[in-house]
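Reminder to self: keep the SMILES exactly as supplied, no canonicalising. Ligand is 2-acetamido-2-deoxy-beta-D-glucopyranose.
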Amino acid sequence: MKATGDITTATLGSFLLLLCVCSLRADYCEVNSCHNGATCVMGVGEDPFICICTDGFAGDTCNLTETGPCSPNPCKNDGSCEVIAPTRRGDVFNEYVCRCQPGFEGVHCQINVNDCAKEPCRNGGTCRDLDGDYACQCPSPYVGKQCQLRCIALLGMEGGAIVESQISASSVHYGVLGLQRWGPELARLNNQGIVNAWTSAGHDRNPWIEINMQKKMRLTGIITQGASRMGAAEYIKAFKVASSLDGISYVTFKGDGIRRDKVFVGNTDNDSTKTNLLDPPIVAQYIRIIPVVCRRACTLRMELVGCELNVYSNTTGCSEPLGMKSRLISDDQLSASSTFRTWGIDTFTWHPQFARLDKAGKTNAWSPAQNNRSEWIQVDLGKTKQLSGIVTQGAKDFGVVQFVSEFKVAYSNDGESWSIVKEENTGDDKIFQGNTDNNTHKKNVFEPPFYARYVRVVPWVWHERITLRMELLGCDD
Ligand SMILES: *[C@@H]1O[C@H](CO)[C@@H](O)[C@H](O)[C@H]1NC(C)=O
Ligand SMILES: *[C@@H]1O[C@H](CO)[C@@H](O)[C@H](O)[C@H]1NC(C)=O
Ligand SMILES: *[C@@H]1O[C@H](CO)[C@@H](O)[C@H](O)[C@H]1NC(C)=O
Ligand SMILES: *[C@@H]1O[C@H](CO)[C@@H](O)[C@H](O)[C@H]1NC(C)=O
Ligand SMILES: *[C@@H]1O[C@H](CO)[C@@H](O)[C@H](O)[C@H]1NC(C)=O
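Structure tokens returned for the bound complex:
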């Protein structure tokens, strides 16, 4: 009995001790030991609690006043502060200067320079002011940074630069007891003769004609024309357009800001031509005309209007920042597998919207909930663009240096089927070498560049936590 009693007492004792430690730990933040409006959070490891100081205070309990004209930083918009007179003196008006980020000016970098003020967009383009940059939205057929280029070459249906083997169709109509073949190779604008156009088979419920341009081109328009057979006019009254970069996944043209497929108005007789602009232009290798309403039969002669991508087709010419830093890529274009919250506090959430190169602040990067290879951050560029590189950067989480040292890149045109960037010679997934510290920009080049609307970065190896700020490089064309 005595022995049992001893054990009970000892157990109770250690239980009380445990209880005491527990409540003590809880008390660390219950009685807020942090000064000057700081936030107290339960500690990790050896520290029982941690104070997160408001601007202008420092020290373990935020009881020290940060001093000097640059503490707290009086410069706005990520401007950096430089002390020019270490002590306050009556005869010195300014004790510091703000060095502003591009696109900002004013004594405290408080003015966002209107980069559209000089009206850089030509030919009716509309200008959007960004942080340190601008973007022109060009009306078709104008393209280029300032809408300065006209993209209006005839691509060769009529002229013959597009050869027979590049043209295919869902079906072919055979007329006059099967002797006349109205094949897709005949669908050339102003083609002459008795059999001079493509016609789909009468039983074909989903007709289409496709042109493989054999490389990626920019298309700004389509010219269509009907034909006459046995003295009767046949033509396509309305059609849709689909395009593909790889001949496997196709996207139906929708037009800017419209959710539904665009239905183009086609022809009204056997001979006149109708020109439709593609606005915005399509970048694709394969283009399909999909008849929706046909008069008598789906009969077509046509031409494609567009231009080469060569304005920017080499990697030196196509490496503009695509807008993570300038915010051309808006917050709702960024998403991620998950987000991390430091100490579980909402205020310290590491949103994908924070993954912008050079972002400042206490939480200034993306970080996922878990550190594993299933996590990703995604950019929806809004439309297909050429991607030629990526710049990555780490960050600090309350003093802890964190970064992604190796990563993979995946891309997609529809947000559903993804390709991973491969090594050119081996065909293995390419592992990009990332950061080695909390701040340096690390640039990687995509060789060859690829075209995509959606891009994902998949962290592969990291230091402390997956933590990423980034910029994508490429061009519109
Ligand atoms: C700030 O608090 C620490 C203990 O947390 C104390 O040692 C120090 O003297 C305090 N400093 C001032 C300026 O109050
Ligand atoms: C076809 O077009 C030509 C030229 O516009 C016109 O003369 C002819 O009558 C048309 N034929 C039919 C069958 O509509
Ligand atoms: C790439 O394009 C730029 C701009 O058009 C041009 O100046 C440069 O010479 C080109 N470089 C190569 C390697 O073709
Ligand atoms: C990775 O983390 C996510 C949560 O963010 C989880 O759903 C998934 O199961 C984890 N995968 C592995 C392999 O641990
Ligand atoms: C983090 O980056 C800053 C800014 O470049 C640098 O001054 C600092 O030394 C870095 N810290 C560490 C621990 O590498």
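Points to follow up:
The CA atoms of residues 41 and 50 lie 5 Å apart.
Residues 114-150 form a domain with the Laminin fold (CATH 2.10.25.10).
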